Structures are given as C-alpha cells and as structure tokens.
Sequence to fold (284 residues):
Amino acid sequence: MTTAQLDDIFSIGGDLPVHRLGYGAMQLPGPGVWGEPADRDGALRVVRAAVEQGVDFIDTADSYGPFVSEQIIAEALHPYPEGLVVATKAGLTRQGPGIWTPVGRPAYLRQQVELSLRHLRVERIDLIQLHRIDPDVPLADQLGVFAELRDEGKVRHIGVSEVSVEELRAAREIVDVVTVQNLYNLTDRKSQDVLDYATAEGIGFIPWFPIATGDLAAPDSPVADIARELDATPSQVALAWLLQKSPVVLPIPGTKSVDHLTENLGAAALTLSDEDMQRLDALA
Ligand SMILES: NC(=O)c1ccc[n+]([C@@H]2O[C@H](COP(=O)([O-])OP(=O)(O)OC[C@H]3O[C@@H](n4cnc5c(N)ncnc54)[C@H](OP(=O)(O)O)[C@@H]3O)[C@@H](O)[C@H]2O)c1
Fold:
C-alpha cells in the first residue's frame, strides 16, 4: 500500500511527471455535456483555481461540449504554465445531450486530433486517449493513426479508455500505451482486473467517475461514517482510497465548484490506515 501525499508524483509515459490527484473537465460544458455552460466565468474560475491549488494534470475530450471543455481550458490557462499536462480524447461523436457514439475511422480520429490541437492552442497533445474502441474498425487502424500523429510530433503519448485486460494487451501490441482510463471507484470495481494489470505493468490508471458522479460525496454516502471518524469529508475518503489503492492511480474528480475542488484536493493529505482501507474495501 502507498501513502497518498500532496507531493505524490506519477510520471506519465516516463517523462511527464504529474501530481496524482488531477482534475476532470467533463463537467464544464452545459447539461448532458452539451453546449456552453450557464456560467462560463464560473467554469473559467474553477479551471484556474485547480492549477492555482497545485493540479498539473487535467483530463478532457474533444466530445465534451463538443469542443467547449477544451476551449474553456485554453481560455483559462493559455499560455500554459510549465509542467501542466492536458490529456484529451478522440473517438466518441455527439449528436445531442447525453448521446455518445463511437467512431474510430482513422480519417475522423485524425481530424479530431487536429481540432484538439486548435482548441487547446498547443502544437503537441501531451496524451491522446482513444475514448472508445469502435468495434467496426480494426484496432490497429484506430491506434495506428495516433502512432502516425505521434511520429509527426502532434501527439506525445497514447492512452486508451474503457478497455478489458485483453483489449489493453492487444493495444500494447500495436503501440506503446501509457495510460488506461476506465470506470472505477469505491462502489464500482468491475475494472479491478484492469487496475491490477496496469499496476503490475506500471501503466497509469485514470479512474473515471472517481466519486460516482457525486454519490460518494453525498451526506448519505456509504463512506459517511468513516469520513466522520477521520474528520474528513466523504469525497476526500473516496479519493484517498483510490490514491492508496495503487501508485499508478490518477483520479480526476470533476466539479464546477471551486469549493468542491478545494475539498476534493484535500484528499491528497488524508492518510488511511490499513484498517481504514480494509473497511473501505469491504464496501464494494
Ligand atoms: N473515459 C470516459 O469514458 C469518461 C467517462 C466519464 C467521465 N470521464 C472523465 O472522468 C472525470 C470525472 O468524472 P465525473 O466528473 O463525471 O464524475 P465524478 O468526478 O465522479 O463526480 C462529479 C460529480 O460530483 C459532484 N461533486 C464533485 N465534488 C464534489 C464534492 N466535493 N461534494 C459534492 N459533490 C461533488 C460534481 O458536482 P459539482 O459540479 O456540483 O461539484 C459532479 O456532479 C470527468 O470529468 C472526465 O474527465 C471519462
């Protein structure tokens, strides 16, 4: 077991060192992750606050808005501070609020990476993640175009999202995969085998829905009692549990609120004992 610390670092791809507790930017656009937020200034404020409070790893996607999340990040932070890593994704299309359809044809993926470069206002994307494997397109073609873009200097590292261990192994036969982003939190551990594989292989594991879209942070959270005992909040306990689960875990809690952001980042200073971890493990 590791002990989470504010200065706890993971090096993405071996050359992009980041603090393990990051920020997920999916909550920035409007409802259904669609269109502009009602409070754009508030969205800009929360992104700036994240960096001011020490976050140097932000996760976004072309499809969040679409484009809105990437544009807000660029407006809030460009020119980017030294050492900030912005990861984005391509491979899901949007036809309306809450609608997500995988498209992995290489020409589409290439177009989306070009658009992300433009929207993020960068010359190279730190980490591009295949948002979903498109079952209608050979995986070698989907990851192959990312490898081409990497060779062209437009992408630094490649990751995948929502994959099985078998798919992750297959992806690694095609390209060097430095991160995997799967749904994983205290109450949903279907991806435990993927986390175990990533831990053994030293691949970054980015758990999405780290606080179960807010359920783990609620007053009736299953971790509320343990949080009270530790003089912490439920979201801090849920995030500290993730950080201590494995040294390759990079949680990216999302929020529109500066108060929630500050609360969540407090998780990095919370140390859970072996007994706390066992009690939390038993809550699955
Ligand atoms: N790869 C994928 O397919 C995939 C899918 C989904 C998400 N993601 C990534 O994962 C990130 C995290 O997921 P997520 O943002 O959907 O879920 P999450 O981090 O588990 O939860 C976010 C929700 O919890 C609330 N919340 C956050 N902190 C809170 C606190 N301290 N107290 C009370 N409520 C709190 C937020 O509302 P407020 O705004 O009111 O704080 C928001 O509704 C996303 O931003 C995105 O980058 C990836």
